[in-house]
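Write out the 3D structure for:
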Amino acid sequence: MKDLFGQAILDYQTGNSPEDIITETSITEADTMETAYLFREHKDMPGIEKKALSLAKGRVLDAGCGAGSHSLYLQDEKQLDVTALDISPKAIEACTLRGIKNTVCSNILDYNEGNFDTIIMLMNGIGITGKLANLSLYLKKLKSLLNKDGQILLDSSDIIYMFDEDEDGGHWIPAGGYYGELTFTVRYKGKQEQPFDWLYVDYNTLQNAAFANGLQCELVMEGEHYDYLAKLTLL
C-alpha cells in the first residue's frame, strides 16, 4: 500500500503542497475530493455525522479516524476519552500533530484494547469490510471491544439508486455478488494506489447481519441521499 490517502492528510496538516484526492470506483467515473474536506469543523459536517457525535458517550473508539476531525471534536468539545485508530501511519501521524492524545495505527481486526462505551465508524467506515461475506467477522470484532452497555454508531448508504432502473421499477444489478460491493482506486499527486474492495451496505442487510451476530440494530437517522445512521447495541 502506498498510503496515498494518508499522504494527502499529512501533506495538508504539514502544509506540504496538498492536492485533491482522485477516487474512482467500479461503477463510477473519477471524482475529485478536496483534502481540506477531511479537516472540516463540526459546523461543516453533514447532519448524520453531527447526530452521531451528539450520541457519543464515555470512552470512545474512532475506528478509521482518517484526519481525526471527529476525534478532535469529541476530545476537545465534549471532553471525552477518545482513541483514534487508523491503518494509515501517515494519517495517524497527522492526528497526533493535530493534538489527538490517544492514537493507534492498527487494523481494527488486530486491535484488542477493548471496553469502549462508543465505537464510531463514520464516512461509511464499515466499508473497510470490503465484501458482504466479511461483515460478520467485523461485527464480531467490534462487539468484542464494547462494554455491555456500549454502542456502535455507523453510517452507510444504500447505493441501489446508482444502478439503472427497468420499466417495472426494478434495477439492473450485476450478477455474482452484492450490489454494494465496489472496487475503489485512489490517485494522489500522480501516484495510484492498488485497487481495494469497499462495501456500502443497505440498512436491512446491516440489521440482519447485526442480529445474526447478537447485536440490536436501530435506524437513528436517514440522510438526504440514501444514507443513514445506525446504532448497534448488545442484545
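The mean pLDDT is 94.
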